[in-house]
Amino acid sequence: MSIAREELEKMVKTWLETVEQITKSEGLPVIPDEKTGDPLWVDVRELRLKYLIPIKRVKKFFDGLKEGKVYATRCPVKKAYFFPPQADCPYCMDENLEWVEIKGYGKLLTYTVINVKPTSYLHYPDYVVAVARMEEGFNILCWMAADDPAKLKVGMDVRLVVKPREPEGFLTFYLEPG
User: Fold this and answer.
1) How far apart are CA 77 and CA 87, in angstroms?
2) CB contact at 8 A, 45 and 58
3) In Å, how far are 37, 88, 114 from 46, measured between CA atoms?
4) How many whole angstroms separate alpha carbon 117 and alpha carbon 38?
5) Where in the chain is the domain with CATH 2.40.50.840?
6) What single-letter DSSP state applies at residue 131?
């Protein structure tokens, strides 16, 4: 097991023990939010998911990430772009979609800073999720790499980049000012 995975498991275990202690002493699974102190209801059921998704027909997208590229698909009949890529056009059911490398430039439409995270994301510091309108005419939703979220402004230029998500190290796409 990787160090990051071990640290995450330890954090979750500690957090669950704290919830259990508070529940026993207070009689309810209600804990204070670490940042605001506001009361939070904690569902006592554990939800852990691991899943496999077949990607054969959209594997080019993942191959592109390895090359530092981000791809969308485009229906040659309806002229519609799809991101994340789809194998079939949902409008005309054409399965002969074209692969299009995204140029990577767009405008920031909206964003939010995530500071209350699901358990599986507790090991990440606060992060920004953003939506950008790309030059090709479609929107992308993803994490925004920003040192200071206060400097983000709706309408600003952004660019799409591929880099590893740490601490796991897998390649993914991000927006960043630019």
Assistant:
1) 14
2) no
3) 23, 36, 22
4) 15
5) 104-178
6) E
Query: Which residues on neighbouring strands pair with residue 110, listed in sequence order?
Result: 131
Report, at the CATH architecture level, how domain 104-178 is classified.
Answer: Beta Barrel (2.40)
Residues 6+ apart with CB under 8 A from 62: 55
**Whether 142 contacts 129, CB under 8 Å:** yes
DSSP 3-state of 41? strand
What tokens does 42 get? 């904690």
Task: Encode the chain (178 residues) as per-residue pLDDT tens digits.
Answer: 567 778 888 888 888 888 888 888 888 888 888 888 888 888 866 677 777 788 999 999 999 999 999 999 999 999 999 999 999 999 999 999 999 999 999 999 999 999 998 878 888 999 999 999 999 999 999 999 998 999 999 999 999 999 999 988 899 999 999 9
Residue partners of 91: CB distance under 8 A and separation at least 6: 75, 78, 80
Cα within 13 Å of Cα(130), Cβ side: 28
